[in-house]
Amino acid sequence: MTVLAMASRDAPKAAIEPPAASLRGVTRHYRFPGGAKTLHALGPIDLDLRQGEFFSVVGPSGCGKSTLLDVLAGLNPPSEGTASFEGKPIAGVPDGIGVVFQEDASFPWLTVEANVAFGLKRAGIGQAEIDRRVDYAVGFMGLRDFRQSYPAQLSGGMRQRVCIARTLVLQPRLILLDEPFGALDQQTRLIMGDELLRLWRETRATVLLITHSLDEAAMLADRVGVMSARPGLFIDIIETGWPSDRDSRIVADPRFGEMTGRIWEKLRTETMKHMQTQGAGPR
Amino acid sequence: MRYRALVTLAVVLACVLALELACALGWVARTVIIPPSEMVGSLRDILWSGEFNRAIALTLTNVMISVVISISAGFVLGVAIHASDFLRRAVEPYLASYYAVPTFIFYPVFIVLFGVNSAAIIAIAVLLSIVAMITATMNGLDRIPTVLLRTARIMRLSPVKTALLIQLPAAAPYFFTGARLSVAYSFIGVIASEFILSGDGLGYAIAYAYNNFENRQMYGLMLLIVIAVTLVNMTLDRLDRRLQSRLRR
Ligand SMILES: Nc1ncnc2c1ncn2[C@@H]1O[C@H](COP(=O)(O)OP(=O)(O)OP(=O)(O)O)[C@@H](O)[C@H]1O
Ligand SMILES: [Mg+2]
Questions:
Q1: Residue B117 structural domain
Q2: Whole-complex ipTM
Q3: CA B147 / ligand 1 centre spacing (Å)
């Protein structure tokens, strides 16, 4: 039913609308401290994030996913190539981008509530509006009973949720999420995924989600980018064709199994390559 | 928590009682140590007579000045050294071995520079206490998780806002530890300097009592200092623990 409706609705849109963000020939080299040697971590990458799409990225550990996110966020410039957001070259962190990092970035000296309100206060938004948005985000992330708690009193997964809420209340147009549910169990991951989908539908923001979970990547995304071992390249970008009103029940759909199968097929070879360069795994 | 405090109190009480008993039974000569009950009596006399009020005020003022100078200058220097790779490479080895140098040997230098007065005493106390604050400041700034600084960049905070809203609170527990050490070292620096060379202050009063075989007065003054330092330390400890508990993850 809606699969086709979706495709017909989104296909022309993607053609007319300029991309939310785009990368052209982007690479990233890290310099080893002191030495002249560099480490080729990423690219060259060409990628267009369509306006309002949900894009997920999977790839072996250390393949440059976080590096890619840094470039998109304007935290690190590409070594070569160009990156742009909403048509403008990315130089420094652009306005309208929200990031949830792989590491816990909650502020330990602030309560959950104050953490979530932090960015809003800086943006000079009125107190009534701050209260409204914080209220919503705190409830949304299941932190209502912990509003007055400090991060030290929360579990790792809850702290990550604080960071997600702190980013979402700012209503970014491009949301970059680096393994945000890493500290959650599989069931909670699926539920959080549902919430994320609901939010994405409401805001029509463009989302880039980095994840280690193939299920999560396949269930949430419009497109799944599969990356090679370092230096990370997109070896395939798979259109899932899910309807935009999808949710976690899709995991029971036979097409879902097919999809994760396809992603895994691509990834398996890469992961084995990676393990071999690390001196582990099958030879 | 309460239990621990009770145990501490019990240990102190037991020691005091043992000493009292030892004195009463004549195991310890009065010329060596006087019974705790007499120390308390002497302390009461000291406080009520007002004879030492001037000395107390002078010592506390010197300690306070030393604390203010070492904390503020130590913080500024710590930030500056942290900011400059060059400075850091140059200074770090000296900071690491700083407390191996007996600072008091520089006393004559300060006397020549400032004369025999509070300035020389404060200089010694600052010399002793400032490095604790410098090291703590650098340590605190080092330990700010980079992901917090990256978050500040994503929120597009200016460098000043980042310093005030992220770096300062994130490193505050370390700064506080440095401040605490500075207070302790300032007390040591001031009182010890007064003891050795000055003509005033609590340290001098103790030295004077000692030289004149005024055991009762000497122990009363010692008790005064021990109580004052313990009270200050307990207050700071409580604040410190509150800060640290937030940091623990
Ligand atoms: N600041 C840095 N300096 C030097 N090398 C770095 C730096 N950051 C990352 N690298 C290297 O770049 C490569 C890619 O790192 P990146 O963090 O992007 O991987 P990732 O795909 O996010 O891995 P994971 O899935 O484990 O999070 C790695 O080999 C890493 O060692
Ligand atoms: Mg990563």
A1: 35-247
A2: 0.86
A3: 14
